[in-house]
Amino acid sequence: MAHTHATRIREFITGRHPQAELTDTQDIFSLGFINSLFAMELVMFIEKEFTVSLPNDELRIDNFRTIAAMSELVERRLAATASAA
């Protein structure tokens, strides 16, 4: 399931940056694909796409540095939502 999350996140990023050929572990900030506006769009995309809420303590750059980190963030938030239900 996490692979599906990673694929959808990668597709969102490459939709904005078609030249990007990203692996799950590349630092998208150091590659220059993320600015502050796109970072907020990424947060909103993740919340809407995966129906998760991202509390302020999860809005750390390390959670968004790689596709793998974002996928893990989605998994954590989905697990937290499931356990709260």
The radius of gyration computed from the alpha-carbon positions, rounded to a whole number of angstroms, is 12 Å
Continuous helix count: 3
What sequence of helices (H) and strands (E) makes up the elements?
Answer: HHH
Described by strand count, sense and barrel closure, the largest sheet is:
none
Distance between the termini: 20 Å
Overall 3D form: globular
Q: Let me know the number of strands.
A: 0
Pick out the low-confidence regions: none
Strand residues, percent = under 5%
| Helix percent band | 55-70%
Structural class: mainly alpha
Mean pLDDT: 91
Instruction: Give the oligomeric state.
Output: single chain
Summarize the structure.
This protein is mainly α.
Keywords:
single chain; 85 residues; mainly alpha; globular
Describe this structure in words.
The protein is mainly α. It is 56% helix and 0% strand. The chain has helices spanning 2-16, 36-50, 67-84. α1 packs across α3. The chain is globular.
Task: Give the secondary structure arrangement, pairings included.
Elements: H1 2-16, H2 36-50, H3 67-84
